Every structure is written in structure tokens, then in C-alpha cells.
Amino acid sequence: MDYFLSEEQKMIVETARQITNEYIIPHRAALDEQDKFPRTILNAMAQADLFGIPVPEEFGGFGGGCLDIVLALEQLGRGCIGVGTAFAASSLGIYPILQAGSQEMRERYLPDAAAGKKFAAFGLTEANAGSDASGIQTTAVLDGDEWVVNGTKQWITNGGEAQIYTIVAITDRSKGPRGASMLVVEEGDPGFSCGPKEKKMGIRASSTTELIFKDCRIPKDRLIGRKGTGFITIMKTLDSSRPGIAALGLGLAQAALDEAACYAKQRVQFGKPIIAFQAVQHMLADMAIQLEAARALVYGAARHIDAHPQNMSKVSSMCKVFATDMAMKVATDAVQVMGGYGYMREYPVEKMMRDAKILQIYEGTNQIQRNVVGQELNKEYARVSVNG
What we know:
Blueprint: H1 7-24, H2 28-34, H3 39-47, H4 66-79, H5 81-100, H6 103-114, E1 120-123, E2 139-143, E3 146-157, E4 164-170, E5 180-186, E6 192-194, E7 208-219, E8 223-224, H7 230-266, E9 268-269, E10 272-273, H8 278-307, H9 313-343, H10 348-359, H11 366-387
Parallel strand pairs: 1-4
Antiparallel strand pairs: 2-3, 3-7, 4-5, 5-8, 6-7, 9-10
Helix pairs in contact: 1-4, 4-5, 4-7, 5-6, 5-7, 7-8, 7-9, 7-10, 8-9, 9-10, 9-11
């Protein structure tokens, strides 16, 4: 389908597609087997200016919107969502600075992030704080001109590889949700360390670690925005980033469909290719229909967010749920079409099926996203009933 992309957007697609074909696809199996962070590939992305897509031009970026980052991530997801996640997590890590950082903070961090010279990470999740962000235990106490941070973050993407970490900490527990703030921690800050890399089912090319703060001292001016506005910044950040996760699902599903359809054309049973059998045709048809429906929703949601950034929670959650559920189903069906071959590591759909599961979990589980949509509908229909 023609989605009427601009010339700049077509250029983003072509650049990301080229990197995927030349750098990601030939190495994705090895990266998965070795649990290896794709630094060389990320450097190629940096040279192609992909890291600058969400960064304003005044800080050396492209000044792109949600749809622009979606287009890039869809192509990267077609190659490997582990690599795509490492790239996306760096954008996620700078979103709080884009959303609420001071001019001085933006000037300090965004140019290097846009150039891919420094990677970023976002530190929210803890052992008792995931879907329920109010369970955060990490604290930051002001001591003279420094914040003293104590606590542990869990399952942080790009942990141990990033140089810039935007984290959430409680700065005044007595104020409840208004007592959380966001701060920037840098690699090498005293009292800050990362745990060992986690062993994961999928997206093994990305690095996932704990962030450990033991009397970690950071300068007072590392506070993002105002004290107590952390939860607001979290919500804006995740609403902005969730279409990117949906886009990774689009890319993975497209790759799984391509592999399954090509296999079905070549695999002969009972004297003819299995794509000639209606049972297989219907599976492939459903995969293609679901993928195109998801793509339309994700692109539409991204355009809505670019036009109405103040009203994006519902569409952001909708596209994340629909596209990532679709990706899991399409990947599973691709394995089924390919039968025993699909189950073997020699063929990429085995990895795609393992990778796809995380899309339904991170950056807000799909159950939580349905809660968000339901709550927004409740608000909308309450206004309808009041206004007649």
C-alpha cells in the first residue's frame, strides 16, 4: 500500500533498509548465539545519521517525528529486533531530556546522542516497580550541590553499554506520585555500576543489566525538569516511544511472512509446492492481512502523535498492543508453515518467534496497554454522557 511518505521519509526507509540488509541480516544469528552487543552495527547507523532522527536540528539531529522513527525501526526490526532494541533504547533514554530537559542539559547531551557517539538508556523498572511505577524504591536525596542516589534498577536495556542514563528516583516519598523525579547519571559516576548481562530468551544482541546505585553522587544540575515531575515525564516518554516498539513488530512480522512464503513456494509435498494447498494459503493470507492492518494503525497513530502530541496515550497504546500481538502470532504461524525446518536454529523464524515475545512485555505489557485504552474510553464516554 502507498502511505504517501515524503521524500525525506523514503530516504530514511532506504537508509535503514540498506543497513539491515548489509549489516544486520548477515550477522544476526551470530549475535544471537554469542549474546553480543552490536556495537559495529550501531556505529554504521551513527554514520548514516539514524541516531539523529528524533533530535532537533539545533542539536545536530534530523528533527524528525514519531513516524520518522517508526519507519526506521520497522526496517531494523526486519533484520533483528535485538539490534533494533539497542537502537530504540538509546532514543528512549534521551526522550526525557527532549521532553523536560533544560536548554543547557540538551546542549550537553543531545549532540553526542544524535551523532551516535554516546548511547543512552532509560532506568525505570525495579524488582517491585514495573507496571506499577509507584512502587519505585530508588531514592535521590539532595546533599549540598549533589544528589545522592541509592537503589537498583532491573532489566535495563543498554545497561553497561550506554554512557547516558536517565533514571527515575523518589526525591520526596511523602508526596506520593508527585515525589518522583528524573535525573541523568553518567557512566563512571562514583557509586554507579551495572550488573552482569542477563541471559534472555530472545533479543540476545541487546544488553540487559541491573543499574546499581550505592551513594552515587551526581551534580545538582542533573535533575531533569522540576523536582516532583518524574511521573509526568515517564508517561510522556513511554507514550512517545511505544509506536517504535510496534514498528519493531511490523518489521519482524514482515520478515517472518517473507521467510514462510518463500519456503512454501519451494517445499514440495504430494507433488506440488505447499503454497498450492488452501490450508497454507489461508495461513499466509491471514498473516499478510494482519500485518497490513497493523501497519496502517501504527502509521496512523504515529501521524496522530506528530500532529497532536498532547493527546497520544490511547493511540500509542492501541498500536503497541495490536502490532506486537500480531507479530507474535505471525512469527508463530511462520514456524508452523515451515514445520520442522521452522523449529531449527538453522532457519531465522525460530529466532523471530523467540524474539517476538518480548514485544508484548517491555515498555508496558499489553495487558497494561489495554488498561490505558479502557481508562481513556471511560473518560471519553463520561464526557459524552455529561454533554449529551
